[in-house]
Each structure stands twice: as structure tokens, then as C-alpha cells.
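Hi R.,

Here's the chain you asked about this morning:
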Amino acid sequence: MRVDLFDFALPPERIALRPVSPRDSARMLVADGSGLSDRIVRDLPAMLRAGDMLVFNDTRVIPAQLEGRRGDAKIGATLHKREGLRQWRAFIRNAKRLKDGDSVDFGQGVSAIARDRAVDGSFILDFAGEEPVEVLLERAGTMPLPPYIAGKRPTDARDHEDYQTMFAREKGAVAAPTAALHFTPALMAGLAAAGVETATLTLHVGAGTFLPVKADDTDDHAMHAEWGRIDADTAARLNAVRARGGRLIAVGTTSLRLIESAAGEDHVVRPFEGDTAIFITPGYKFRAIDGLMTNFHLPKSTLFMLVSALMGRERMQAVYAHAIADDYRFYSYGDASLLLP
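And the predicted structure, written out as C-alpha cells:
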């Protein structure tokens, strides 16, 4: 499909630079069979049915943004996928000043050798020393805020809390599963009281999620792979919900993509551990997911294509037009949508 079919005009002031507080007071646009309704996230228990299940991503964001030098050249690195015990694939700023075998000093006693430059300009960074890379990143790295936020203000101490979900446990993401940022213990208690079940899986979100689709046609876009895991107990719980007539509702596109990667054509979710580069566009036949809670996404992004596959492209253009006209806040720190086809 033509990528420009997924374009829309977003006023810059609609981009949220900070989350609302408390988290569950964010607005939520509900799109279902009855049309559109303007709610807040705290209303979610009333929007679901007893027996439904919400599926969360328990990945934890690491301080994966690094600033360093190779000689007199400034080098910026955003880690996006672990490739080994001490190796991470990274997008590089000022990559023209870096070649295979160069050493980059990131300060605080942290350095790495650049290797294996890829066609997209990324390198593998092989970190020196014996300390775990996670320890090195805590010392020298910063939270990797999306470029549409980082380009407007610096990362600060608030982001270390704001950019983690209450479910964050498994270290390895370089971007937050932002739909889950809206959840609080009080909201979880309300969902439990309403008979809504919950489960968690792990998908380590990569920085590739922020990359624009540069191709003119979706067939020519290559997705970056991300590592995920659904254990056997969780897969069994997901299947049991659907078997008894409940709905599986993914909280975030990351949860949705991993569940769909693990589901077969028989609609059964199987245990999964490994990489996925699933790219969901209109025409895709969903195998396991019945709904999605997600934030509002960038024009011409793979994530807007995904929600268009779930709800229909024209329907999502209308949903986003309503959100823009009604002053919803967009992107990672913005408001939510609940999509129930």
C-alpha cells in the first residue's frame, strides 16, 4: 500500500511533552461498534466486560542514550537491540565520523569498539571491561526519550520515573510501552473488581519504533527485529480467556505484535521466545487479539498502519481527526485510545 495513505496533519502543539498526573486521569477516546466516546482512562473498567483480559508488556527501559567522542568527533549512540553479552546494535549520530574498529569514549569509564556497520548506518558497539553493560549504562547513559520530545526539551530526572510503567521489570527496552504508562494501582484494583483479568509478557522495544517509514510503499519497508517472550503459563491463560468467550485486549502495540507473532493460523497462542519483526498493515487477519488500548501515533508510521489494520484506515483517519479537533494529547506522554473492532 502507498505510505501516503497513512498521512495526516498534526499541529505541533498536540505533542505532549509531559504526562498528566495522576496517570489514570489522561483522556481516552473509545472507538467501538457504537461510534466514538470521550472518556478518561479511569473509566476503563466500565468499558470492558467481566472475563476480558488486558495484556501488558513488563519490559523496563534502560538508559540507552549515550554521548561520546572518537578523537575530536562527537558521537551519539542510541542502543536498540542486544546482540550478545557485551554487544548492542546502536543507531549512531555523526556516523560519517565512525568506522569499523574505532573506539568511542562515552565518559565515566565507559567505552566501546564500533563494529559491523549495517546498511542503515547502525553499528554494533562492543563494550569494554567486565562490568555488566547495564551497570555501565546506569553510569553513563540517559533515558532515550523519543525524538519528538527530546528535540523540544532535555531529558531530566522526572523522566526516569515518568518513562517507566508500573509493570516495568525485565530490563532491555530502549523505548517504553507507552499505553501502559496510564495505569495505576487504583486503576488495577478497579479492573479486578470489574472481573477483568490481566497478564504480562515481555517485548524489549527497540529504537526502530521511532523510525519513519521512508519507503513510498509498505512492501518496501523493513522492520527492525525486537526480542520477546511469552511463557507457557501465560500462553495457556490467553487461550483460556478466548475459549470461554472473553476478549484479549492488548495494552500497547508491543503486546499486540508479540501475541500475534506467537499465534498460529488456528488462533492458538503458543509459547514464544526470540526475535519478531512482524509488520501489520491493512489486510492482515488478526489471529488472537480482540482489541487494543494504545496512544496516538505518528503520521505515516508503522503503528498508525497497525491500528488501521485493526479498525480500518478510513475509520482511523476519522478517529484521529476527532482527537486532533478535540485537543487530545499525542504520542508517548499523550492520551489514550481504546479500539474495539
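The chain has two domains: 3-61+161-339, 65-141.

Let me know if you need anything else.
M.
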